[in-house]
Amino acid sequence: MNKKTQSPIYDNPAELLRQLIRFDTTNPPGNERECILFINGLLKEAGIRTTLLGRNRQRQNVIARLKGEGKAPPLLLYGHVDVVTTEKQKWQQPCLPRCCTTPSARPCCTPATRSTSSRPR
Length: 121
Description:
Radius of gyration: 18 Å
Structural class: alpha+beta
């Protein structure tokens, strides 16, 4: 549940994205643990059994299974939470993790735009 509105987090995908963007999972070194624990909590809150596996606690994976009825082939969803560095890149807004701290915050990690004179016509 979204603690502010008491509605499931999936009812507001923008808020879910905002919360996920707050985690600094820049690789290297990764540091995905807090984000993985957040996702794990959402899945458990939804009643889905989860398992955390990994070589070390800082770089674990969440494994979750939602059992079907056997009427269709299985479906595997796969993703990752680590991101590449934005170091040495120009951005209009600061990137992770301090962006998007309020619902009215400007979009995070907005690439620096070229001036109109440098755009091809």
